[in-house]
Amino acid sequence: MVNRTGERRVAGSWLGPRRPIEIATDGENGLRKTLSWPHLVGLGVGAIVGTGIYTLTGVGAERAGPAIILAFAVAGVVCACAALAYAEMATLMPTSGGAYTYTYSVLGETLAWIVGWSLILEYSLACSTVAVGWSGYLVGWMQSLGIYLPPAILAGPHAGGIVNLPAVAVALAIAGMLIAGTRESATFNIILVAIKLTALTAFVALALPAFDADKFTPFMPYGFGSEVIEGKTRGVMAAAAIVFFAFYGFDAVATSAEEARNPGRDLTIGILGSMAVCTLIYMFVAVSAIGAVNYLQLGTSAEPLAFVLRSLDHPFAAWAIGLAALIALPSVILVMMYGQSRIFFVMARDGLLPRFLSRVSPRSGAPTTITAVTGVFVAVVAGFFRLDEIAELANAGTLVAFIAVAVCMMVLRRRAPDLPRVFRCPQPYLIGTLATLGCIYLLISLPTHTLTRFAIWNVAGIAFYVLYSRTRSALGSKNDHPA
């Protein structure tokens, strides 16, 4: 922590030691303030629009029916509140590790471990989700060209296959790129964003004219909440708990505060504006899709948007949107896998994971060992599990991380109100409470089997922490007598 004289010391509590807070400054090495709110809105839209809308529209429609548009709205509001809290923490502590680091500094090592363990699910399983979604579009795209591969290598055991080989291949390929030190260029990202938005605009333009209002009756066939119907968890909140995945990426806006000309105004507009734009895009796509094809049919497709266009006799457009997904989605895997390897790296550097995992390549400067481990883990999960199951478990980890960030923001406002903050969340206790309660509601709206798996994952993680990490913690060894 930082005392009034600016001196750092290691603090502690019954939850373990707390890491000193690294505060953002505007010194000589600060970044130039070149971004205004339109830039931040554009950055957010580019980062957020991606995998979820291409791959989870069908899953969400199956769970909520036409009311999936409400599911997108609920998820967007919750994410906006979480993003505002995240922005304050990210700009106050601009260090690696994200929610894990914030929790370490504010709440202590024990809870930081739980958050870090949950982040493994967020990033790794998000990669796996995208890989499975990419595989679905690849199979549909190839079939549109008359190329049919053996079903046994296109799906895991849950669907009668052996392994989803395309999903495994793309995950390992991206891991190989990261190990080699490959980075996305800004120009490449802009091109991918343009492809994604153009494809979605074309989809709406082609599907909306076929809109049939009768397909929205009944509007909410499974109710608003989350309950098991016909053996599956259904309802608006059940759908919101999975389409929440579609809003990943807002941290790209939250971490740009140092470059914002007027952080207090521009960051608020940037976060809320990008969330509003993305929510509207998602709702338009959902309305167009369900208005054109019955939601029960939509829920059966691994590439729902291309399926709608084929159903409307637009084979070339279906082929093109499938190609757009194939081109754009791997970039999401790269970003997520990059983030996961850095979370692992920070935890290993802190001594909570084996230290050899924090080794970096002298040639590329990348943490090659942990990137390889991450790539193999992602590939195995993508090869053998279903899209919805992976996304649900990834969301569980993310929701815990978002809850931690909101709580950290409120605790630090109370504990250290005078710390210099580049960005101050408006109405911090209201926004923090809404983010916390909203994420808890989405978390308990996940299917029971997902929550059971998440609990098992955390029990295993706590056991690992007690038996290994706590005694090897680099910070804990400096603070045997917590304050």
From TrEMBL:
Keywords recorded for this protein, A-Z: Membrane, Transmembrane, Transmembrane helix, Transport
Transmembrane residue ranges: 37-56, 68-87, 99-120, 127-149, 161-181, 188-211, 236-257, 269-296, 316-339, 365-387, 393-413, 425-444, 450-468
Short name of any one Pfam family annotated for the protein: AA_permease_2
Taxonomy, superkingdom: Bacteria
Principal localisation: membrane
InterPro entries: AA/rel_permease1 (IPR002293)
Membrane topology of the entry: Multi-pass membrane protein
Cell compartments where the protein resides: Membrane
Keyword Iron: no
Lineage of origin: Bacteria, Pseudomonadati, Pseudomonadota, Alphaproteobacteria, Sphingomonadales
Protein known as: Amino acid permease
Keyword Signal: no
